Each structure stands twice: as C-alpha cells, then as structure tokens.
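Possible regression after last week's pipeline update?

I re-ran a chain I had predicted before the update to compare outputs. Posting the input and the new output here so someone can diff against the archived version. Not blocking, just want to make sure nothing changed silently.
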Amino acid sequence: MRHLTASQVARLAGVSPDARPYYRALAGAVRTLVMDGQIPVRVRMPAERHLADTLKVSRTTVTAAYDLLREQGYLESRQGSGSWTALPDPAGAADNPWLSTDGDGLIQMRAAAPPAPTALREAMAEAVEDVPRYGMGNGYDPMGLPCLRERIAAHYTARGLATRPEQILVTTGSQHAVQLVMGLLAGPGVPVLVESPTYPHAVEAARAHGARIVPVGVSSEGWQADLVAGAMRQSGARLAYLMPDFQNPTGALMDDAIRAAVAGAARRAGTTLVIDETWSELALDEVPRTAPMAAFDAGSRMISVGSASKLWWGGLRIGWIRATAALTRRLAQHRASVDIASPVLEQLVVARLFDRLEETRAERRRTLRASRDALVAALRERLPGWSFTVPRGGGTLWVRLDAGSALSLAEAAACHGVRLAPGPWFGLDGTLEGYLRLPYTQPARVLEEAVGRIVTARDLGPVGALRPASCLTPTV
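New output (post-update):
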C-alpha cells in the first residue's frame, strides 16, 4: 500500500496555523484532497504523532481530525495497521452536497438516479489506460465499441437470451435509445401504447414525433394482461413502451406468465414492444427469477433498451439497444441525424464495469435497501395516512396521498427546501393528481430530513414567494 509522509500531507493540506477549530480545517483539507483526487484512495496516512510534530500542533488535534475523517467515511483504520484514505459509503454520506441537494440547497427528490458506486474509480483508471489503443482511429463508431457490445451481448446470453454483438447498438444513454426508436418507428398519428403512470420522457419522445399516445393502466400490484392486450388490439398500436422490471414509478415487477401473455398479444396485434430494462439489475429483495422480456419474442418484434445509469452511474451517459441485427443497423444509420457516436472513454469505462457487475449489484442492493427501508419507516411514522406498496427493487416509491393535490404539495415543499415529483408528471392529461413519486436513491439521513420538510410543507403550506414554475420541471 502506498503511503504519504507527514511533511507531504502538511504541504498538500496547507492549513493556516490560525484556522479555528484547527482539527476541522485539517479534516476538511484532507477530505477535499481525496475528493479532488490529489490524495488517492487506499493511501496510508502518516501516524498521528508524526503529523502532529510536523504541523506543530497537539496530537489530540490530529486525533480529532482523523476521528472526524473516519466518521465521514474518508479514513479507515485498523489497530496495528495504521490509517488509510477511503471514500464514504453512499448509504451514509449525508454531508455530501453532490448527493443530497440541488445547487440552490434544496433536497433533490425529483430524480431517481443513485450516486456512483465505489467500483467506478478503478474502472475509470483502467479505461484511461485503454484509450491509447483507440487513438489511431477517428473515435466514431455508430454501433459502439466492439468490446462493449461483446460484454452487453454476453450479459444477455448469461440471462438466458442468446445475443450476438451485432444485435447491440450502444447509445448515449437510455433516453437517447428511446428517441432513436421513436424517431425511426413512430410518426404522425402512429398509435403508441404506454403505461400509466410511466417515464415522462418516453412520452415526450413519442409526442415529439407526432405519435398518438394510448395509455394502459399499471399499478404497484402490476399489469392486467387482458387490458394490455385489449389496448393494443383496439388501438392498432404500432409500438408499445413497457417497463416490466421494477417499473418507474410504481416499482412493479412483471412475472413470466404475464410477460409471455403480453408478448403473445403483441405478436397477434402486430405491435412492436419497446422494453425499457433500466432498472432490471436492481432487485433489492429475493424475487422470482424472470427471463428478459425478449426471451418471449417469437416474431422478432421486441426491442430492449438498457442503461448504465442506475446500476452504475448516470454521469456515464451510456445506454444500449438490443434488437435484430438488421434493425440495429437501421437505427445506427438513423442516429446520424442526432449524433455520430457515443464517447469512447465512457464506453470503455462501462466495459470495465461489466467485469464488476456482481460487486456493484451487491453494493446497490445494500445501499438502496437501507435507504428504501429508512424512507418507508419515516413515511409510516410521520405520514401514516399515505399509502404505498413497498417495491422489491428499483429506486422509487409510488405514494398515494390521503388528501390534497400533489402539485400543490410540490409547490409548497419547494418553499420548505425539498423538490418533489408530483404524480401528474407520470400520467397523461392531468391524471394521477393524488400521487407522488419518492425516490430512495439518496442516503437514509437525507431521506429522513426530506420527509420532515414534506410534513412541514403539508401542515404549513407555502411560505414567502413561491419558487418559479421552472423549479417543477420533470426529471428522471
């Protein structure tokens, strides 16, 4: 393990002798150095006595600084082995402003995107080492890097769905994937079936191409296969956008029997299913094993959309499409009107992260389960009239209010320091006014604080000038 000397830490930290309290200034400087990458993770720090002598402060001061760093998760220690730098567990990093709030200080409860996992740093370092191998080319590959397409195809095959790399198109996030599909296959007046509630940006993508939206209801308990089949048949839907794996926002999981029934109904109706698998890797409890939806496709009318954003990190902006080889080529040609190719470095990072899939899945299961359970407990204690089904995976609670308007509550909550995602964002034509989507992708302490602010907003209503309507713009 690499180590830093006391003089190196003192020079890097650069804490003024007049700083008060000194131990907090020292801890803050070391934390900033770790977050900025100037002090790498897993580097041994100097002994407290040596650092105290170099800084000309008491050992008690350095001990207090080390204790604070350990409490915040930036230092780990073992008796007889010393102390070394670390990154905090995402489940307990409530003091990290990038995880907890918007830039204006409001707690962010609109987006359902988790922070990066611990595996990201190593994967990025390895990807940077890989980049020079690709530097001789122009960096444009409309289909995506072969190494990443191979890993994605191998993952589908391991899940029981035989897939070749030529069936994979790498995209710049899952939203880009949905846009490509809608741009190629939807059009003015084309009926597109969507769940209600659903992911709002998918509806926007369909509407942007002039499609006619056909809603079909889904609840936290799941789908009614006959209703989905009837909606496809009666509307003549050319496309249907579905999220069978921990549906956003309800968290519902479609079982294999319903998957088979919906796939069969789509085949009979001539409907192409666009299956969003963004949350498919995030089972938090033991759930029945389900096959990928495309495993039930007997007529090559299934398009699967995946993403690195929820299992790994949204900042990577990497997604993918799985379809027939012919359709992926058509989509790759169509993307030229949107972009040329996805970034090489980010693709290499995701390829490396596939090697750490089980590690990351276990970390996500642990942190998201802790946050989910904390949010559930806080809601049941402080808002017992609100009702919801606890999802077995995914990242959101779909909550029914006991009274009032979700839009009004969201406006009031913005005045009390928390941004909310009201139900109508996920519905059609102003429906779902009595619902709220609450993500549990932030640390438990942040969620508990958010619930407290929601209670205040419900009881007191807005205070002072309301924030502008742009504060209530839908997000992921």
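Follow-up from reviewer: compared with the archived run. The radius of gyration is 25 Å. Marking as no regression found.
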